[in-house]
């Protein structure tokens, strides 16, 4: 037993204890009434506070750190002791404190008999020590609603409140695509992050020396998209190219298989970004092996598509312009009646040469504004002119154009919708955000005409990405649910 746990046991010995548990990110009058009622049924009130890494309420949460939240609660007269909870539930702290009363707000009462809910596990632990559950009844307040206004763009919050059923739409769509077979075609890219700290200018050359602090390597490109897609579908297949030593490391991902059509001398595509560790700004980008990446087994890819494409329900093309998708593959894709969604990326390797207009027939398109301008040769932010020009060159059902910090637009059934950006503050890392937006908008658009809700859900997914460095988000499907829950309050 840890020293702080021993001290707790000394403080609560021979006392009638009530225990509350929660995040308490923003303490409002509802919390005060809650603590007051808990203290009335006991002579010693313990409040357990969820540690930062277990706060599953979306990006930028908790708003206040664990230490700040504990400090605030310790100042309240009703509370005798505040303790951290370094677990997903309060079970361990309940086991330590053994409260006579475990006190929760009445909103948890409906879930108290559901075995998959944390409250059920916590009540079960309380009863092991002959404790009782006590539900307080107070006027309804919401920390999440208050903090939403501090974290999220005000215009975005107004947008989602107008005749939208985005939460239920998301749940329904997840059920719809769960058993669908998804084929993804695209290049795998390795994204390396090297964090450096500047030293001094070299005395012999006009250079600033940097000290390498740490290095991270992420699977990116079509591979990260496929891994996320496998959270939504039981059957995801990726056509790509990846060296065999890396292929073995990722071949056991659940719901996911790779068709690795490469020649023996294939080299991985790698992008190395050097990042100033002090402000997290990117200071240099290095490409590696972009030319040798053309060493794909095109005949095998073409044969696989010709024989198997009709067996899939959804096709997602992530075209990063590194020569995987040749004209014959594109023609085979376009001839098939499968639902197909495509992102065609312009980057510093292929700038001006990898345009969405090389595709002629698609269901769903997702590109950024710069890529749309390159494809149409329209410099101005004239969305109607851009969309009209793309419509002349490509037959499509719906198109999403991301606008970075200005949000995104959708065009469907001759109707243009614009969604504001999600966050008030600046993005931490935009790398890959457009790819995540493309994937989620593709999945959510499948046999779903509610493009406003698709915009909301895809924007949230991209928002989760820009709040993390590299590809650090572990479970997009469940994290989107957490944000949707928070926004629904």
Report the β-strand fraction as a percent range.
15-25%
CATH architectural arrangement of the largest domain: 3-Layer(aba) Sandwich
Uncertain ranges = none
Task: Please tell me what the overall shape is.
Answer: globular
Quick one: biggest sheet?
9 strands, mixed
Task: Give the arrangement of secondary structure elements.
Elements: H1 3-12, E1 17-22, H2 29-40, E2 44-50, H3 66-74, E3 81-85, H4 91-97, E4 101-105, H5 118-128, E5 132-136, H6 143-151, H7 154-160, H8 166-177, E6 181-186, E7 188-201, E8 208-221, H9 222-232, E9 235-240, H10 244-250, E10 256-260, E11 269-276, E12 282-288, H11 298-308, E13 314-319, H12 327-335, E14 339-344, E15 364-368, H13 369-376, H14 383-393, E16 398-402, E17 408-412, E18 415-419, H15 433-445, H16 451-466, H17 476-487
Parallel strand pairs: 1-2, 1-4, 2-3, 4-5, 6-9, 6-13, 7-11, 9-10, 13-14, 14-15, 15-16
Antiparallel strand pairs: 7-8, 11-12, 16-17, 17-18
Helix pairs in contact: 8-16, 9-15, 11-12, 13-14, 15-16, 16-17
């Amino acid at each position: 037993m840890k020293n702080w746990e021993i001290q707790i046991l000394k403080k609560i010995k021979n006392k009638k204890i009530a225990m509350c548990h929660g995040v308490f990110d923003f303490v409002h009058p509802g919390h005060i009434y809650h603590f007051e009622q808990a203290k009335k049924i006991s002579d010693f009130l313990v409040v357990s506070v969820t540690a930062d890494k277990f706060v599953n309420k979306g990006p930028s949460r908790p708003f206040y750190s664990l230490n700040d939240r504990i400090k605030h609660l310790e100042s309240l007269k009703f509370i005798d002791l505040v303790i951290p909870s370094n677990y997903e539930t309060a079970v361990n702290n309940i086991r330590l404190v053994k409260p006579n009363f475990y006190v929760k707000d009445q909103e948890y009462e409906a879930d108290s008999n559901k075995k998959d809910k944390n409250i059920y596990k916590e009540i079960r632990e309380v009863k092991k020590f002959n404790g009782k559950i006590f539900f307080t009844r107070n006027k309804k307040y919401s920390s999440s609603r208050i903090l939403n206004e501090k974290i999220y763009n005000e215009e975005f919050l107004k947008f989602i409140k107008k005749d939208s059923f985005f939460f239920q739409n998301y749940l329904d769509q997840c059920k719809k695509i769960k058993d669908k077979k998804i084929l993804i075609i695209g290049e795998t890219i390795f994204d390396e992050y090297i964090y450096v700290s500047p030293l001094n200018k070299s005395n012999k050359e006009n250079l600033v020396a940097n000290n390498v602090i740490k290095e991270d390597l992420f699977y990116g490109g079509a591979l990260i998209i496929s891994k996320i897609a496998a959270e939504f579908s039981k059957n995801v297949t990726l056509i790509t190219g990846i060296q065999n030593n890396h292929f073995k490391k990722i071949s056991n991902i659940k719901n996911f298989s790779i068709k690795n059509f490469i020649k023996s001398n294939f080299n991985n595509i790698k992008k190395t970004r050097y990042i100033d560790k002090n402000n997290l700004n990117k200071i240099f980008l290095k490409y590696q092996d972009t030319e040798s990446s053309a060493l794909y087994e095109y005949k095998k890819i073409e044969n696989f598509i010709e024989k198997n494409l009709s067996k899939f329900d959804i096709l997602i093309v992530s075209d990063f312009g590194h020569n995987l998708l040749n004209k014959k593959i594109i023609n085979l894709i376009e001839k098939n009646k499968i639902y197909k969604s495509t992102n065609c990326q312009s980057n510093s390797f292929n700038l001006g040469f990898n345009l969405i207009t090389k595709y002629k027939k698609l269901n769903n398109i997702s590109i950024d504004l710069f890529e749309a301008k390159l494809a149409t040769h329209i410099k101005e932010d004239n969305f109607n002119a851009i969309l009209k020009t793309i419509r002349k060159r490509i037959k499509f059902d719906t198109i999403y154009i991301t606008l970075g910090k200005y949000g995104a637009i959708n065009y469907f059934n001759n109707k243009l919708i614009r969604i504001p950006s999600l966050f008030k503050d600046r993005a931490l890392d935009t790398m890959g955000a457009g790819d995540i937006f493309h994937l989620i908008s593709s999945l959510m658009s499948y046999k779903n005409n509610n493009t406003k809700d698709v915009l909301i859900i895809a924007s949230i997914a991209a928002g989760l990405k820009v709040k993390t460095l590299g590809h650090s988000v572990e479970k997009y499907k469940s994290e989107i649910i957490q944000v949707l829950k928070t926004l629904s309050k």
